[in-house]
């Protein structure tokens, strides 16, 4: 990481930090514990699927990059893709993985260094949703390995976390409070975050 590091975080309401009374979410907590000088942008939008992120990411991220700088992108989606509406999931798993592949391929062309955070579980959506989200996370991880892109899984660990589940169920069934987002931030920080931010951008 250098003095011109810019990191965009793009995805859904979990990226946005919905439900956190401190308005920091996991993104703000991760940034507080990131070494070096970073210019960060939170581009999370509630209810966004991978289709939505694919459609908007370049027009929102590229104007925030710095030519010749250390430009990075954190992508996190999938929880909304796997929600059932009108009898079917909003976005099928194969399509979701293809959308992620398109973003990662574009990042390579646009000289943006990506990292992917897997879909958090939706505590109030039941076991069927958790199964779909877990399988999607596994497929996303396999894609990232094939592209040599860091992937940080969150689904299984948060599904078994008492704080995440308790806070989500006490709220809207999906979004935790500050304690749950602290837990998600800890997962990110304990995984590949520091190695990724220390990695040269080229």
Can you lay out the helices and strands and say which pair or pack?
Blueprint: E1 5-11, H1 13-16, H2 25-32, E2 38-44, H3 50-61, E3 70-76, E4 84-85, E5 88-89, H4 93-109, E6 113-117, H5 126-147, E7 151-152, H6 155-159, H7 162-170, H8 178-198
Parallel strand pairs: 1-2, 1-3, 3-6, 6-7
Antiparallel strand pairs: 4-5
Helix pairs in contact: 2-8, 3-4, 4-5, 7-8
What's the short version?
With 202 residues, this protein is an alpha/beta fold.
Polypeptide structure, described:
It is a single chain. The protein has one domain (5-198): 3-Layer(aba) Sandwich (Rossmann fold). It is built from eight helices and seven strands. With 202 residues, it is an alpha/beta fold. Helix 2 crosses helix 8, helix 3 runs parallel beside helix 4 (93-109) and helix 4 packs parallel to helix 5 (126-147). Strand 6 (113-117), helix 5 (126-147) and strand 7 form a beta-alpha-beta unit. The strands form two sheets. A five-stranded parallel sheet has the order 2-1-3-6-7, with helices on both faces. It has a two-stranded antiparallel ribbon with strand order 4-5. The longest helix has 22 residues, at 126-147.
């Amino acid at each position: 990481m250098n003095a011109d590091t810019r990191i965009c975080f793009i995805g859904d309401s979990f990226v946005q930090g919905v439900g956190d009374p401190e308005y920091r979410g996991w993104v703000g907590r991760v940034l507080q514990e990131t070494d070096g000088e970073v210019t960060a942008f939170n581009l999370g939008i509630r209810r966004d699927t991978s289709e939505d992120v694919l459609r908007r990411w370049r027009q929102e991220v590229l104007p925030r990059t710095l030519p010749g700088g250390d430009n990075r992108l954190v992508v996190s989606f999938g929880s909304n893709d796997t929600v059932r509406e009108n009898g079917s999931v909003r976005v099928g798993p194969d399509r979701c993985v293809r959308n992620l592949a398109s973003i990662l391929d574009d990042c390579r062309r646009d000289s943006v260094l990506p990292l992917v955070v897997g879909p958090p579980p939706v505590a109030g959506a039941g076991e069927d949703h958790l199964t779909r989200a877990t399988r999607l996370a596994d497929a996303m991880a396999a894609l990232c390995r094939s592209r040599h892109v860091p992937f940080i899984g969150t689904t299984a660990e948060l599904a078994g976390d008492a704080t995440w589940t308790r806070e989500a169920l006490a709220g809207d069934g999906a979004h935790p409070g500050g304690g749950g987002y602290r837990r998600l931030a800890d997962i990110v920080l304990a995984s590949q975050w520091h190695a990724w931010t220390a990695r040269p951008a080229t």
